[in-house]
């Protein structure tokens, strides 16, 4: 089996588009990753054949000089052959978060007693259950079951649909899920069928709270619970809309933020008359529960 190749180097954030475009013709795929907020980014290229590393490194050096930055340290190496099916299964073991047991179709054992199963495949939609933000939201949803009954819910930025499914399975209520990415909604729709909650969960492609389905769902566009596992800055910007669509006394679960970003999200919603009820911290990530 002919090995794949990987090239990699780091550049400042402002230089990422130019360098990514530079290496794109020489590899089969280019990825960029933020290494530190406002700082260095990793540019990584993979290729099915050995790339012309001499030519690539020369072009990188010329571009660096033109942009006035130090020449990046350039790495090129063959990648070992990988059984991707086995790797995918091994990298996505079952996860328990609160009352929920998240697993892929490759997991053939029964769901543990007392747990609620959620079958989610690793796919091109956020929310496989692996990330601490998803687990934090699932824990918060699980804890809500002990304290209150709800009649409807909204999953803003639903991704794979995992949070909407969790709510539907706990309360057997209608849940509206919205995501700006049409592919995520396609995946979530199939996931809803696999998890047998398609009679409760209705999924729509749309632009946040402006989506018609959001205004028409719930009780005249108002929801008992809103979950939004997005990012800190969008959460803060959407605070007025969240408050407008959240029932008085209802609860909102926010995640997708680091510990240091808590004040940004909390203060934005406090300005709308909401108050912090509880926080969950897993690793570097936070999940906030706020009351309307």
Q: What is the CA-atom radius of gyration, in angstroms?
A: 22 Å
Mean pLDDT: 88
Strand content: 25-35%
Give the strand tally: 14
What's the helical proportion of residues? 25-40%
CATH architecture of the largest domain: 3-Layer(aba) Sandwich
* Strands in their spatial order, largest beta sheet: 10-9-8-11-12-14-13
Q: What is the approximate shape?
A: globular
Summarize the structure.
By secondary structure, the chain is α/β, with parallel strands linked by helices. The chain has 10 helices and 14 strands.
Description:
The chain is α/β, with parallel strands linked by helices and 292 residues long. It folds into 2 domains: 4-81, Alpha-Beta Plaits, CATH 3.30.70; 131-291, 3-Layer(aba) Sandwich (Rossmann fold). Helices cover 33% and strands 30% of the residues. It is built from 10 helices and 14 strands. It has helices at 16-23, 53-67, 84-90, 132-147, 162-171, 182-194, 212-216, 232-237, 239-245, 262-270; strands at residues 4-12, 29-34, 40-47, 75-79, 95-97, 100-103, 116-119, 153-156, 175-179, 201-205, 223-229, 246-258, 275-282, 285-291. The strands form 3 sheets. Strands 10-9-8-11-12-14-13 form a 7-stranded mixed β-sheet, with helices on both faces. Strands 2-3-1-4 form a 4-stranded antiparallel β-sheet, covered by helices on one side. Strand 2 and strand 3 (40-47) form a beta hairpin. Helix 1 runs antiparallel to helix 2 (53-67) and helix 4 (132-147) runs parallel beside helix 5. The longest helix is centred in the middle third of the chain and has 16 residues, at 132-147.
């Amino acid at each position: 089996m002919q090995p794949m190749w990987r090239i990699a180097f780091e550049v400042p954030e402002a230089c990422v588009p130019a360098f990514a475009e530079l290496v794109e013709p020489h590899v089969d795929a280019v990825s960029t990753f933020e290494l530190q907020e406002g700082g260095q980014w990793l540019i990584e290229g993979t290729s099915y054949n050995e790339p012309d590393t001499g030519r690539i490194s020369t072009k990188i050096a010329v571009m660096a000089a033109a942009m006035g930055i130090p020449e990046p340290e350039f790495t090129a190496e063959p990648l070992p052959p990988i059984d991707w099916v086995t790797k995918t299964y091994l990298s996505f073991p079952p996860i328990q978060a609160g009352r929920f047991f998240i697993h892929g179709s490759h997991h053939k054992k029964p769901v543990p007693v007392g747990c609620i199963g959620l079958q989610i495949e690793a796919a091109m939609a956020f929310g496989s259950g692996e990330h601490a933000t998803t687990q934090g939201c699932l824990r918060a949803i699980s804890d809500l079951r002990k304290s209150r009954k709800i009649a409807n819910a909204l999953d803003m930025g639903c991704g794979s649909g995992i949070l909407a499914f969790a709510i539907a399975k706990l309360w057997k209520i209608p849940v509206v899920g919205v995501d700006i990415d049409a592919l995520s909604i396609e995946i979530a729709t199939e996931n809803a069928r696999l998890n047998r909650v398609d009679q409760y969960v209705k999924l729509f492609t749309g632009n946040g709270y402006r989506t018609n389905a959001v205004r028409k769902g719930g009780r005249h566009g108002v929801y008992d619970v809103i979950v939004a596992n997005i990012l800190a800055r969008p959460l803060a910007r959407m605070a007025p809309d969240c408050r407008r669509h959240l029932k008085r006394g209802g609860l909102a679960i926010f995640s997708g933020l680091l510990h240091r970003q808590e004040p940004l999200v909390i203060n934005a919603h406090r300005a709308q008359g909401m108050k912090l009820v509880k926080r969950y911290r897993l690793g570097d990530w936070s999940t906030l529960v706020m009351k309307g």
